[in-house]
């Protein structure tokens, strides 16, 4: 009887262990597959935006940024630069609002066309100025863009595998989509494009709603209504979140850091009911010269005029120490963040210094819950315990 009981206990224990392994494996993301899926989906979105809008086109090098954030889902970001604005035939009379604006645009264009054949056409042309009623408003074009994005979210995000039902998919425009004066020829006359902005735009949907649509539980119309669109609202970022970004920039200045360094303040992205994402970029050296004569200075190590191989070896040596300092600084200075709820997350996404064939990741992502930082700040746990609760995810390989 005793032997049988022991066997049963062992069997139960094995089942629990196996279940734990399966559960753990199920939560792991195949980053290579995810990167591939995001690239495919990004190209689809770019094509749809270009085809679905007759007012602007997305430039070739300004690709859509796409990232998977553990605990949130996927975020697509349309570029704020590289947009080529193209008036449609039905909206060809795009004009400036004032003589002052026209004069400024005229001077800019004259300088741009200096010593070029087009200058003759420019000087012979007559500039048209229409009353305010004829000025093109971006409302219609903006609505077309929103409808295109909603269609993408409902019909094409299933191209991204590995997403959980609790995840979300968001498409947003980076900051404000501002554009400057444009000019084109209409019946031999020069016509100026007005200055304007698409404002802040984002649209998101929960993966569970996409799954319900794919399985036939809700209609396509219902799925489109599930997309939450936010327009022309200022991005609310609490002061303590910006303060932490400034602190990171300070502790990773080249004169203070002993590993990699930053040259600009990390970007801050506030996501409702999720937390905050910081986007940082770090460097290891300042190159001088070209080709075989190229030398490097590594200010954090006090090294000057070192070769490419010496620099790369140092970059590899500094990677793990950098990660340790990043974790330590996230906990130590993250205590200044008080505006987040306990269940919200602080994510620090860092693009690493370039180092070809060095074997280090292209980027690294650190995540910690706000509740952990609050516990450390109040003395309920020590620093080692807090650091141990940070999850680290590496992406890509150099």
Structure commentary:
By secondary structure, the chain is α+β, with helices and mostly antiparallel strands. It folds into 2 domains: 31-87 and 133-231, no CATH class; 239-395, no CATH class. 39% of the residues lie in helices and 22% in strands. Strands 2-3-5-10-11 form a 5-stranded mixed sheet. A 5-stranded mixed sheet has the order 12-13-17-18-19. Strand 12 and strand 13 form a beta hairpin.
What's the number of structural domains? 2
Compute the CA-based radius of gyration: 27 Å
Low-confidence stretches: 5-26, 81-102, 115-140, 176-198
Assembly form of the protein: single chain
Instruction: Give the number of helices.
Output: 11
Strand order of the largest sheet: 2-3-5-10-11
Major beta sheet summary = 5 strands, mixed
Q: Determine the mean pLDDT.
A: 77
Question: What is the H-and-E element order?
Answer: HHEEEEHHHEEEEEEHHEHEEEEEHEEHHE
Shape label: globular
Q: Give the amount of beta strand, in percent.
A: 15-25%
Task: Write a compact overview of the structure shown.
With 398 residues, the protein is of the alpha+beta class. The chain is 39% helix and 22% strand.
């Amino acid at each position: 009887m005793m032997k049988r009981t022991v066997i049963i206990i062992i069997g139960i224990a094995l089942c629990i262990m196996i279940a734990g392994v399966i559960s753990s494996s199920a939560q792991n993301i195949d980053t290579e597959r995810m990167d591939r899926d995001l690239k495919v989906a990004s190209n689809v979105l770019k094509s749809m935006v270009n085809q679905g809008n007759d007012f602007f086109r997305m430039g070739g090098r300004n690709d859509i940024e796409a990232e998977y954030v553990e605990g949130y889902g996927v975020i697509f970001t349309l570029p704020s630069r590289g947009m080529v604005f193209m008036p449609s035939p039905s909206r060809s009379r795009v004009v400036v609002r004032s003589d002052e604006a026209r004069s400024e645009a005229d001077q800019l264009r004259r300088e741009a066309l200096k010593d070029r054949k087009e200058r003759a056409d420019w000087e012979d042309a007559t500039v048209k100025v229409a009353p305010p009623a004829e000025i093109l408003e971006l409302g219609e074009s903006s609505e077309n863009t929103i409808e295109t994005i909603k269609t993408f979210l409902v019909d094409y995000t299933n191209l991204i595998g590995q997403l959980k039902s609790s995840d979300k998919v968001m498409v947003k425009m980076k900051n404000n989509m501002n554009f400057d004066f444009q000019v084109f020829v209409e019946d031999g006359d020069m016509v100026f494009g007005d200055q304007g902005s698409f404002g802040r735009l984002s649209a998101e949907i929960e993966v569970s709603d996409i799954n319900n649509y794919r399985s036939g539980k809700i209609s396509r119309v219902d799925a489109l209504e599930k997309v939450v669109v936010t327009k022309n609202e200022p991005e609310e970022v609490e002061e303590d979140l910006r303060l932490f970004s400034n602190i990171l920039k300070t502790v990773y200045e080249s004169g203070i850091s002993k590993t990699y360094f930053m040259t600009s303040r990390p970007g801050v992205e506030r996501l409702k009911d999720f937390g905050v994402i910081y986007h940082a970029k770090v460097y290891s050296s300042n190159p001088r010269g070209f080709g075989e004569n190229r030398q490097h200075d590594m200010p954090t190590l006090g090294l000057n005029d070192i070769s490419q191989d010496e620099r790369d070896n140092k970059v590899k040596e500094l990677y793990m120490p950098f990660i340790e300092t990043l974790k330590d600084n996230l906990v130590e200075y993250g205590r200044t963040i008080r505006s987040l709820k306990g269940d919200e997350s602080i994510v620090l996404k860092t693009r690493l210094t370039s180092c070809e064939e060095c074997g280090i990741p292209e980027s690294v992502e650190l995540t910690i819950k706000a509740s952990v930082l609050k516990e450390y700040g109040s003395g309920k746990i020590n620093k080692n315990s807090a650091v141990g609760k940070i999850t680290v995810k590496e992406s890509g390989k150099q």
